[in-house]
Design a protein that fits this description.
The complex is a heterotrimer of chains A (298), B (375) and C (286). Chain A has 298 residues and is an all-alpha fold. Chain A is built from 13 helices and no strands. The radius of gyration of chain A is 25 Å and the shape is globular. Chain B has 2 domains: 53-151 and 287-306, Periplasmic binding protein-like II (D-Maltodextrin-Binding Protein, domain 2, 3-Layer(aba) Sandwich), CATH 3.40.190.10; 157-281 and 354-374, 3-Layer(aba) Sandwich (D-Maltodextrin-Binding Protein, domain 2), CATH 3.40.190. Chain B contains 16 helices and 9 strands. In chain B, the strands form 2 sheets. In chain B, strands 4, 5, 6, 7, 8 and 9 form a 6-stranded mixed beta sheet that branches. A 3-stranded parallel beta sheet of chain B has the order 2-1-3. In chain B, α9 runs parallel beside α16 (359-374) and α10 (238-244) packs parallel to α11. In chain C, α3 packs parallel to α8, α8 packs antiparallel against α11 (206-222) and α9 runs antiparallel to α10. A two-stranded antiparallel ribbon of chain C has the order 1-2. Chain C has 286 residues and is mainly α. In chain C, β1 (40-41) and β2 (47-48) form a beta hairpin. Chain C has one domain (62-285): Orthogonal Bundle (MetI-like fold), CATH 1.10.3720.10. The chains are: A mainly alpha (298), B alpha/beta (375), C mainly alpha (286). At the A-C interface, α1, α3, α5, α6 and α7 of A face α1, α3, α4, α5 and α8 of C.
Chain lengths: 298, 375, 286
């Protein structure tokens, strides 16, 4: 990075920055000055981020069927949801699929993470590539490919195909997250434990796992939420009867919306928010330093 | 000291590669052997409860009370799925999904039957089938299903133009050209249906409704392209588009109009016409896929749906006529204020039906429709 | 056998289930897509292997090329807008967030774990002709011909909304890691915050920007929800065509060819991009 000297021209500089001359003179305290423009953008950003969520939540309590005129507060759409066997069945399906994908992907992903970080073999490079591709593949491509694969082997689209597809795509996420954590671990601690007489299994159980499990738990919750909300992949690989909630929402949006979709949407929002807050807060609660947000710092 | 065999990296690599190849080869199966028409299951189906009903239909096409009544009377559940198009329905069927009762349109009955994908239905086991076949000669031996051996007619409908009287006036000219309307700029919709859109263009240009000729299709594409500037969207949800106020002018199905008129706060706002160049007609039917797991329940369901009281409930709910003797009066009464929406068996005689095409023709039509949709 | 070799064996074994799973359910699936791009459909519309170039030829027609180009334009625009928004936001949080920093980041992240469809549907409701936003605009005198939905802008906006978190987070991470004294030095040298930003901050955080660009552009290219819910007939993207060919349009080989084209396009973009960034970091290291 090259640094050139330049004589700042007062008028031009302050005009460009949109700040007053008075402020510009305070040298060294540029850190304290809040950039007004950026703050405004940030505020607007947060408002726009939550606006559609607010709209969905507010209209889920609407007394009228309308999606544009708010009439009054009512719980009727929530009641309609809970009375609708199909919808509650779908909710159960979504939860089931998310749970299976979570367990499968965390187990396989953890194994992959260890293997990728610690194995000194050429397979590691290949495995690394294979594992990363889903992350940069648009979901529609994964969905299409999965659909073609299942149809090719005469596997009827249903719960199984949905679970397989969601697990496949989740493995990549989990591996990336856990790999960072594994890389932080010091293998010598395990070696030390084994030198002290522990078997490999005991070393893993007593040393490695306790260090790993907050990250595994966080990534498990993350994956659960991601799969629970997933739409595109589910749309391509879902079958007749157990349809996950996101696919039902899509059908309702496309073919005549019933306002109870707003209630369903709100419930899903609340569930996801609770889950993700849990994922962020849990590591701290469990006494580990740092929050789950470390997961996002690559 | 023996050396324990260990898995070399090369071995692992090979294993992974082999399994990928194997699955690849295995998956080739479904796409390689073109199976001849599937052999029909030998056993005859009789109406009896053999499990829950897996029901696959357009959304909102049957009165919910009717479905509830079936569940209560026979003690079974109805597992509902919806499709958004006939192709979507066929896609799910082809993907191996197993439904008990489906609602294909006429040409799809012909297609599915050709591939032996429909159970034959013996009319004599249905108590209420006589109400159709003894009175409606047309359905005794329709073009799409000889002797109606694999399907029972459900509804009839035709396609026309629907509009908002308060925005565009009480009367339009009675032609498909009405869709080209300056006032309705930005509020015009076409159905998202290849046959309907291409058919409309064909009728307007005086061509065969089902043409797959390259030059014809080019003309049709150009004609509809001239409508694009006015077009808000392609959407088969004419019902909601009209009710929400998004649509002032739309290609529409007759029965949906009837439904709009009942749901609307002010029915006098809406109107429908059957253009003089021709109104495509169609029939939706009940059919039982040959891989159905509960065909007995399906037969019971069809028989139940054909009971006059249920037919009447459905007619009132969806506004489409059903060719069941004894229910005509209900339909006539319903349609009295809006005669333009009425569909009778005579309309069917006009023979403006969408027919099936061979592979290449279908491709040509699909290509034309994509060109229309992309613009 | 030495314990080191034993460990190595163990770790290599651990690679097996994951690699196997991914090869079977992902790699072979992608290979199938490529293979079926050369296929055809039979009488009932079922896909069959073949060796025809019809599908590829079909895609090279102007109709499809137009959609591909449009998708590129939308995705690039969305990525650029994401960059323009993410920097101020990440900057404010990283350097002025204080002890609320983590909470603010959490507040950004949380909506993205809520259902994407539901949030897009929320926008559709808000921006519809009879919705809150349009009503207000009409009150303010905007002509009734103007509409937000069914425009390219709405689709790009939808893409930005859907993927912006993938830009904000990496940029934020980079900004956080950046040495604050660099900015101070820049201020001393340049005086203008804007110039400091452009010549100091941006280059220092470009790793985050690069990550964000990849994470936004790639999924945006395959998106079809935004165009479907917020766009009109003139705003179709590749994803919409692909979806159509697999469901309503029923032409799997053509859909496979389209999917393969999308994959190839993204691979090409990634390669060009990686080469550029590699070159960049080589230069920076000098």
């Amino acid at each position: 990075m090259s640094v050139t000297t330049a004589r700042p021209e007062p008028a031009v500089a302050s005009a460009a920055a949109g700040t007053s001359r008075r402020r510009r003179r305070r040298r060294g305290s540029g850190m304290d000055r809040k950039p007004r423009f950026a703050v405004a953008v940030t505020a607007l950003f947060f408002v726009l981020l939550y606006l559609p969520i607010a709209a969905v939540v507010v209209f889920s309590f609407n007394t009228k069927k309308s999606l544009t005129v708010f009439d009054g507060w009512s719980l009727q759409w929530y009641r309609a949801f809970f009375n609708d066997r199909e919808l509650t069945h779908s909710l159960g399906t979504s939860l089931e699929v998310a749970a299976v994908a979570m367990v499968g992907s965390v187990v396989i992903g953890a194994a992959l993470a260890f293997g990728l970080v610690r194995a000194r073999s050429r397979l590691g490079a290949a495995a690394n590539a294979i594992m990363l591709i889903p992350l940069i593949t648009p979901e529609i491509v994964t969905g299409v490919a999965s659909l073609m694969l299942f149809k090719g082997v005469y596997l009827e689209p249903g719960l199984a195909t949905l679970m397989i597809a969601e697990t496949t795509f989740s493995i990549s996420y989990v591996t990336v997250i856990l790999r960072a954590r594994v890389a932080e671990l010091n293998p010598e601690i395990e070696e030390a434990a084994m030198d002290l007489g522990a078997s490999r299994m005991q070393a893993v159980r007593l040393v490695t796992l306790p260090l790993m499990w907050p990250a595994m738990l966080s990534s498990a919750i993350l994956i659960f939420t991601i799969v629970f909300d997933d739409f595109v992949l589910a749309f391509f690989t879902t079958g007749v009867s157990p349809q996950p909630l996101s696919v039902r929402i899509y059908s309702a949006i496309r073919f005549g919306v019933q306002p109870s979709i707003n209630a369903v949407g709100t419930l899903m929002l609340v569930a996801s928010i609770l889950l993700i807050v849990l994922a962020l807060v849990l590591p701290r609660l469990l006494g580990r330093h740092g929050s789950g947000l470390d997961l996002f710092k690559s | 000291m023996t050396r324990a065999p260990y898995v070399s990296r090369r071995g692992l690599f090979k294993a992974a590669g082999a399994s990928a190849a194997l699955l690849g080869a295995a998956s080739a199966c479904a796409y390689v052997n073109p199976p001849g028409p599937r052999a029909l299951p030998k056993k005859k189906i009789v109406p009896k409860v053999d499990g829950d009903l897996v029901y696959f239909n357009w959304a909102d096409y049957v009165h919910p009370k009717v479905l509830k009544g079936f569940k209560a009377e026979y003690g079974v559940d109805i597992i509902q799925s919806n499709f958004d198009s006939m192709e979507g329905m066929a896609a799910k069927l082809a993907a191996g999904n197993r439904y008990d009762v489906i609602f294909p349109s006429a040409q799809w009955v012909q297609k599915l039957d050709a591939a032996n994908q429909l159970y034959p239905i013996d009319h004599s086991v249905l108590d209420n089938a006589a109400a159709i076949f003894d009175y409606y000669d047309y359905f005794a031996d329709p073009w799409y299903d000889p002797k109606s051996a694999h399907s029972i007619p459900f509804t009839m409908y035709k396609t026309g133009v629907a509009w908002r009287k308060d925005k565009l006036g009480d009367q339009l000219t009675g032609s498909w050209n009405d869709l080209w309307n300056d006032t309705a700029n930005g509020h015009t919709f076409l159905l998202d249906d290849r046959d309907e859109v291409l058919g409309m263009g064909a009728l307007l240009l005086g061509l065969d409704l089902n043409t797959a000729d390259g030059d014809d299709l080019d003309q049709i594409v150009d004609k509809i392209d001239s409508l694009r500037p006015y077009l808000r969207a392609f959407s088969s949800d004419d019902f909601n588009n009209l009710l929400s106020g998004d649509a002032w002018l739309t290609q529409a199905w007759s029965g949906d109009l009837a439904a709009v008129i009942w749901e609307a706060d002010d029915p006098s706002l809406y109107a429908f016409e059957s253009p003089s160049e021709g109104s495509p007609v169609n029939t939706d039917t009940y059919a039982i896929p040959s891989n159905a797991q509960h065909p007995g329940t399906a037969l019971l369901f069809i028989d139940y749906m054909l009971r006059p009281e249920n037919v009447e409930k459905n007619i009132n709910y969806i506004g489409y006529p059903m060719p069941v003797h004894g229910t005509e009066a209900v339909y006539d009464e319903l349609m009295a204020p809006f005669p333009a929406c009425k569909v009778t068996v005579d309309d069917l005689g006009e023979d403006l039906y969408f027919t099936n095409h061979g592979v290449d023709d279908t491709r040509a039509r699909d290509d034309a429709y994509t060109r229309i949709k992309v613009g | 056998m030495s314990s080191a070799k034993k460990s190595d064996r163990l770790w290599t074994w651990l690679l097996l289930p994951g690699t196997l799973w991914m090869s079977v359910f992902f790699v072979s699936a992608l290979a199938l897509v490529v293979a079926l791009s050369f296929g055809r459909t039979d009488e009932l519309g079922n896909p069959r292997f073949s060796n025809t170039l019809e599908n590829i030829r079909g895609i090279l027609e102007w109709t499809y090329l137009r959609v591909i180009i449009r998708s590129l334009v939308y995705s690039v625009s969305a990525t650029a807008i994401c960059l323009l928004i993410s920097y101020p936001v990440a900057y404010v949080i990283a350097r002025h967030g204080g002890r609320y920093r983590n909470a603010l980041v959490a507040l950004i992240v949380i909506p993205f774990f809520a259902n994407y469809l539901v949030r897009m549907y929320g926008w559709q409701t808000l921006l519809s002709d009879d919705g809150v936003v349009m009503k207000r605009l009409r009150d303010l005198g905007v002509s009734s011909d103007f509409h937000i939905l069914d425009t390219a802008g709405a689709v790009i906006g939808g893409l930005v909304y859907g993927y912006i978190v993938f830009m904000v987070l990496p940029v934020y991470a980079s900004l956080q890691r950046m040495d604050g004294s660099l900015i101070e030095a820049g201020r001393d040298l340049y005086g203008s915050p804007l110039r400091t930003f452009l010549t100091v901050t941006v280059p220092a955080t470009r790793a985050g920007a690069y990550a964000g660009i990849v994470l936004v552009f790639l999924p945006a290219m395959g998106d079809f929800i935004s165009a479907q819910l917020l766009g009109g007939p003139d705003n179709l993207m590749i994803g919409n065509l692909i979806q159509d060919k697999f469901f309503a349009g029923q032409n799997w080989p053509l859909g496979a060819a389209l999917t393969m084209t999308l994959m190839l396009l993204l691979l090409v973009c990634m390669f060009a991009y990686l080469r550029q960034t590699a070159r960049d970091s080589r230069e920076a290291a000098r």
